[in-house]
Amino acid sequence: MELFISSAHANNAAVAQPNAFLQILPMIAIFAIFYFLVIRPQSKQRKQHRAMVDGLAVGNEVLFAGGLMGKITKIDGEYATVALNPTNSIKIQRTSVISVLPTGTIDHI
After folding, report:
1. 48: part of which helix (H) or strand (E)?
2. Where are the beta strands (DSSP E) in the chain?
3. Which of 23, 83, 86, 87 has the most CB atoms around it within 10 Å of its CB?
4. What is the C-alpha to C-alpha distance for residues 82 and 88, in angstroms, rounded to an integer?
5. pTM of the predicted protein model
6. What region, left, alpha or beta, does residue 59 occupy, with left being phi > 0 and alpha being psi -120 to 50 degrees?
7. For residues 60 and 57, what is the distance between their CA atoms, to the nearest angstrom?
8. C-alpha distances out from residue 41 to 19, 38, 63, Å
9. Could you tell me the strand order of the sheet in which 69-76 lies?
């Protein structure tokens, strides 16, 4: 009986251990997929939004996060004053602007 046990141990010693790189390869592949499907597109979108916010100017017609539209009448640092109509103006954070509308959009609505 002892003969079989010792031969079994000898066979286990002969089995090669997998390469460390092959063990890490699936994790690298998952990270690469995650990077190209989530991180990179979100980074591009954030850069585009930052460029749009930095390019805001007086007279731009904008749509902002609250769903309201208006025309920028004053920019003061990180805030902008937006005229919703001729009698009402509000102060918003420039980063809350979702998009800059084509000139004349508010008049046509």
Report:
1. helix 40-54
2. 61-64, 69-76, 79-83, 89-93, 97-101
3. 83
4. 9
5. 0.71
6. left
7. 6
8. 34, 6, 23
9. 89-93, 79-83, 69-76, 61-64, 97-101
